[in-house]
Fold this protein.
Amino acid sequence: MIKKLLNVPNTQAEDYDIEGIIDYIDDDFIENLKKDKFCKKPLMICSGGTSSRCAAKEHITIDFRKNYTEIDYIDFKKEVVIEPGTRMQDLGKFLKSKNRSFPTGLSGLTGFGYILTGGISPTSRKYGLAIDNILEINGIWGGGEKFNIIKPDQNSSKLEKKQWKGLCGAAPFLAIVTQVKLKTYELNSIYIWEASISSNQLAEIIEKAELWPDNASFNWIWSDYIKGLAIIEVSNKEELEYMKIIVKELPKTSDLKISKINGLSTFKGMELPISNNQVISRYYSEVLGLLSNSLKGHSYVLVQMIEEEIRNRPNKFCYIAAQQLGGSTINNAENLTSFIHRESAWKPWINGSWEPNNKRERDQAIIWMENVWEKLEPYCPGIHLAQLHNHLPWHAKEINCAFKNWLPELRQIKSTFDPKEILPPL
Ligand SMILES: Cc1cc2nc3c(=O)[nH]c(=O)nc-3n(C[C@H](O)[C@H](O)[C@H](O)COP(=O)(O)OP(=O)(O)OC[C@H]3O[C@@H](n4cnc5c(N)ncnc54)[C@H](O)[C@@H]3O)c2cc1C
């Protein structure tokens, strides 16, 4: 084991004085899991290293980024097998060379955590969540037992179905995932409409977007002002014509930009809309992912609420944003995953930021996040648990809102397969 700091995109995780790094999974490691030899629990796992919980003070991190980056393409099935050091941009670029794609998210830097915690892509309305596209999972339960599980069908046992459901959406609590096999899709052009919009325009577009076809999604981010992005995949002439209709009905603002990319692998993400291009090079942050049902008829009220919360935010780097769900994320739900809020139409998320080691700013940001959650909760009853927060005051509430009635069974799976709580608590 190497003792050092972890060099990761998440600055907070990077600054922790950690116990050490394990970057190779061998028989000794598995023996140590079985014999419960790790004195400081939980073990942390780093794949993309974009969340604040890929490391923790004085804890060991399993870092997959150096030795587990293999990507294999199964040509005749058009499936891909990836190891947990693979970032989504690496997967996207690799698949592009095969004329294929995968529903990756708004950032190419994310790793396995993106896939295992659900994976909401701008193309999810057409292709489903990332977890809906997993075909096979290999890994090691927290208790040290290796597993290989294939996506269940009608012949699968009850136990296999439960294990699969736990792993797809709640894997970080249960297992160290060492490989997944994924479906892939034809690579298509993606048109991006991007503009600064007013709060009224935002509410109006939210209502309209709920009626868009599944190949289109609306995303927005709000800090000093609001940036909206319509992301539309076009695979044929009909969709091209419909894309033009969608774009025609969107506001024509002075900074309006329409661009076209070939698949999501070159998508640049959503930039934080702040005036004067003020940038701080390093800041810490936490993210709370909410889930709302259709906002039809409620969008103006919700946007007004958000406007007030944005006014109250403790600093410019705190923001609220959202991605659109619906289409395949609702219709293809086979009750096979731990992402139970399948009726959700939007994922608004709250980002709290603060200067490193500024406790006052941190406390303000955390309190602001909790307040915003409380205000939005009547419209956003669900949680997308894309980040682990066992170090934050709302962990228990967040877990409850994420898994609801499924939580008792999930806890049973945890107590069977990670009985010594080697992985984060549930
Ligand atoms: C800029 C940005 C944009 C984002 N956009 C989206 C988006 O569009 N859609 C979306 O759904 N999410 C999005 N996210 C959220 C992101 O997907 C989650 O935070 C995810 O958990 C990050 O995974 P990671 O591997 O990059 O990070 P890490 O910090 O390395 O891992 C995150 C968590 O996943 C667990 N984990 C990682 N690898 C494994 C493994 N092999 N086995 C078991 N557990 C593991 C770890 O325990 C860790 O707690 C975004 C995040 C960022 C920073």
Summary: The mean pLDDT is 95. The chain has three domains: 11-63, 71-186, 189-405. The chain is about 30% helix and 25% strand.
